[in-house]
């Protein structure tokens, strides 16, 4: 690889905005506009990045390859540390509070809103990327900004779909996953009767449990807060959601109360469940296995979206991840240059392709990546950002919504009611009490 000076890298970064991106030998033109951002990198700069552990090997391989390329182009050494999904959030919060640690963190949802004053203002970069690559999806406008300024660069969405065994669904008498709530429950009951139960996480799973709990509530018209941030969880809609959740829980494999993010992957790949919710990582693991049984499982695996509830439109939560750079970094320009580099098409497109769409695009231009059509089983994940609601729904995003998510307020409510450890009303009352500690209106 040709080595460039720091100045040459900055010029090349600007020029790449007008370049076509080539993915797996298939080229498509990215939108072009003059100029990128010019960040004069500090002398002697080094960076430390904390990110979540991969579920898809191609993600990690291409991420590391891109990091190496950044170092070769800029001379900036970058150390990447990986932590489990559940561990990134507390470690990022510690770094923010003590003012030391990683320069950049790949965090979850609106984690940046818990400590917005501790983060670099990246408005110039976000605006540049948006203007050059088709604009940000609306949901990222909400997650990335605080008080009108961008405090994080959205990396993308780990799209969450229903993952199911087509043969087992048909054996239970269903040609496809029903799109309505009553039909979905009947399907789950039929699968249970065939000894092929379903399973959704009810434990401290950052992605899977939150996605399920929020969908369950929203599909029945419930919400944690209203548009003013008033806690309104104690409602007939919430009670309907939890009563439905109790019935659905009876069709599930045992043990979901302790499931974390890897748990449903293992249960599905082990043949313990016929249907769960997950990113494309389950399919990726089966498809790329050398085990004949898993290869057959991959062929039998299909993906679809959640049923539509009372509103008549999708009410899904996806697992959004953002890159945030802390003010305590000694090298803010190097940090911003790294964020930009990873979002440019020459890096982002091959990374998304290598992970077969495990993380879907936050910028609309990247919808054209061939990964979404080369394998039709990946296509449902393409639309994650355009389908999802933000988890603050219907209220504002900010420190209160971030804290409620981090504290698993809705996940615990669903788990308590479903398992019978509390009555439906007791579970609601506890959730309301916890939420009011954060939403002080």
Automatic annotation (TrEMBL):
Gene3D superfamilies with a match to the protein in the record: Periplasmic binding protein-like II (3.40.190.10)
Family: Belongs to the bacterial solute-binding protein 1 family.
Major localization listed first in the record, in broad terms: periplasm
Matches recorded under InterPro entries: Bact_solute-bd_prot1, SBP, TAT_signal
Transport keyword on record: yes
Protein name in the entry: ABC transporter substrate-binding protein
Species assigned in the record: Herbaspirillum hiltneri N3
Keywords assigned: Signal, Transport
Organism superkingdom: Bacteria
Cell compartments where the protein resides: Periplasm
Signal peptide from the UniProt entry: 1-29
